[in-house]
């Protein structure tokens, strides 16, 4: 049993093993029969929660859902884990504090799967990279551009670039630069030579200069031929992305996230088999 908290906890080959399990997920029918996965998700989670719950159900398992604030109580997390382990076979946690997930992993023999923290979003990255592997000729040789401020999604792309070894550049005002990341503040310059353009919503503080960081169809025309726009949902038309770019052929499409279901199932299988 192992936990899934940061992509950089694993070798690239191990992460690619998750893609192999994804390709063959039908072989794992009944893998979770009689098993219970306890999930901590806020009410505003739509995609990650729907795909996790459905994925567990399809593998034969049961889910029990709590709000993440259930973990922020006076009781020591070691004691919460000690009791939880009697009945749970895995836990999936969306919580701002990644160190809490680390403590849970230290105190549980069952896997702890990170469903987003303020530091990263490893399951989303795995699904995006799996989807890119399906639509790109060589997704690890592509040049990635993250447009947006330092935050969980930017850091998640940074972590993914380290774990998989692909090239990542950020574009945003310098005060929002992700530490130790190549950052070009001029978006028109940054997008030249890029293949995969990713975004996250702008933090309130970045709204002033935000228009100069909006990814439009005109901006995408400056990228490499065949480039794609992969905005992190929820995205906001008229803010980090324009209406015209979402309605264009550059947008990877809603179906790009369809693989969240199978990739997350594969992450559960991978963690429980290890
Ligand atoms: N696709 C998702 O799972 N949503 C991620 C939301 C990212 C955003 N930066 C947030 O933390 O609110």
From TrEMBL:
Coiled coil: none annotated. One of its GO terms (molecular function) is amino acid binding. This is Ornithine carbamoyltransferase. Residues 144-270 form the Aspartate/ornithine carbamoyltransferase Asp/Orn-binding domain. The keyword Transferase applies. InterPro entries: Asp/Orn_carbamoyltranf_P-bd, Asp/Orn_carbamoylTrfase, Asp/Orn_carbamoylTrfase_sf, Asp_carbamoyltransf_Asp/Orn-bd, Orn/put_carbamltrans. Residues 3-133 form the Aspartate/ornithine carbamoyltransferase carbamoyl-P binding domain. The keyword ATP-binding does not apply. Keywords: Transferase.
């Amino acid at each position: 049993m192992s936990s899934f908290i940061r992509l950089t906890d694993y070798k690239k080959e191990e992460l690619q093993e998750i893609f192999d399990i994804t390709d063959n997920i039908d072989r794992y029918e009944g893998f979770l029969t009689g098993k219970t996965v306890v999930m901590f998700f806020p009410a505003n989670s739509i995609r990650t929660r729907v795909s996790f719950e459905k994925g567990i159900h399809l593998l034969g398992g049961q889910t029990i859902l709590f709000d993440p604030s259930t973990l922020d109580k006076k009781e020591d997390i070691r004691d919460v884990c000690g009791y939880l382990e009697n009945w749970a076979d895995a836990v999936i946690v969306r919580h701002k504090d990644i160190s809490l997930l680390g403590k849970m992993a230290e105190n549980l023999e069952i896997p702890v799967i990170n469903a987003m923290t303020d530091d990263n979003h490893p399951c989303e990255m795995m699904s995006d990279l799996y989807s890119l592997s399906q639509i790109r000729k060589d997704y690890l040789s592509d040049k990635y551009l993250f447009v947006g401020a330092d935050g969980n999604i930017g850091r998640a792309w940074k972590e993914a670039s380290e774990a998989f070894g692909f090239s990542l550049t950020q574009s945003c005002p310098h005060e929002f630069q992700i530490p130790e990341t190549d950052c070009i503040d001029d978006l028109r310059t940054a997008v030249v030579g890029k293949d995969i353009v990713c975004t996250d919503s702008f933090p309130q503080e970045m709204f002033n200069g935000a228009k100069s960081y909006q990814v439009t169809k005109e901006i995408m025309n400056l990228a490499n031929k065949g480039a794609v726009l992969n905005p992190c949902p929820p995205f906001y038309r008229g803010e980090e992305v324009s209406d015209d770019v979402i309605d264009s052929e550059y947008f990877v499409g809603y179906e790009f996230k369809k693989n969240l279901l199978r990739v997350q199932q594969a992450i559960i299988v991978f963690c429980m088999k290890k």
